[in-house]
Design brief:
Blueprint lengths: L1 E2 L4 H7 L5 E7 L2 E13 L2 E7 L9 E4 L2 E4 L2 E7 L2 E8 L1
């Protein structure tokens, strides 16, 4: 868990040209499409999403010709409220 210096929506607006839409599959069933940002931190490589994304460990995220198997989920907070879902792969 980390504290965000700005709201997650503002972060996504600032990097809107870098957003990638991912198809999320859970047990081979598509559960949704969500926009996220590739990133890395001290815990490893991840894709950051807004909190409305339905993503769990074990899900497979696909965009273009790349797929990622999610190994863990963490949340970053702004003013004590979870605002950013980080899906580590």
């Amino acid at each position: 868990m980390a504290a965000l210096p700005i709201p997650a929506n503002q972060y996504f607006n600032d990097f809107s040209f870098d957003l990638i839409e991912y198809e999320v599959k859970r047990k081979k069933v598509i559960v949704g499409n969500f926009k996220g940002l590739l990133n890395k931190d001290e815990n490893g490589r991840h894709i950051a999403f807004l909190m409305d994304a339905s993503i769990l460990p074990g899900d497979v995220l696909t965009a273009s010709h790349q797929s990622f198997v999610i190994r863990s989920i963490e949340h970053d907070h702004y003013n004590g409220t979870p605002e950013l879902l980080k899906a580590y792969y």
